[in-house]
Amino acid sequence: MLDALSDVLRVTRLSGGVFLEAESTAPWCMSGRIAPDDCKPFVAAPRHIIASHFVAAGHMQLRVDDGAPLDVRAGELILLPRNDVHTFGSDLGFTPMSARDVITPPSVGGISRIKCGGDGETTQLLCGFLGSETPFSPLLSSLPSVLKLDMRATASGAWIESSFRFAVSETAAGRVGSTAVIAKLSELLFVEAVS
Fold this sequence. Notes:
alpha+beta; seven-stranded mixed sheet; five-stranded mixed sheet; 4 helices; 12 strands; 35% strand
């Protein structure tokens, strides 16, 4: 599987980035899907997008279409290989608001932000993507609609998580080269999730 995955990654040439930081307090519920324009600060708008959400603090539920809700806790990463429209929040019983309606555009060199919700528990998310201009292979197309990776349960998880957080803070501060680091870390996280 790993050799096949290496071949797929070499051909698809994934690139990625983190474009949004969200801090939401319960109760909250949003729906969204990553648009090609969200990727423009990092790469030209890709034809194929894998959405990602890393829960940095707190917890949430996530559902794709009419599927069962998935509990996601701090330290876990969600990948949506087909970039499906998804609903996520502290309670999926609420009517979801569009994530686009509550995004604050980035300051120069920073990332977009969301701050919303009530006065309950706080959940902090880092939202990003992996993208490609190359059509995805049957291997990638065969993945489930949602992949969940517990960063703290993998051998390299603590290192990847701290590197990911550092690169995001560097991106938010407008540091040169930080988007390239995020792209490589995003690809590494994808490999961890599917292997």
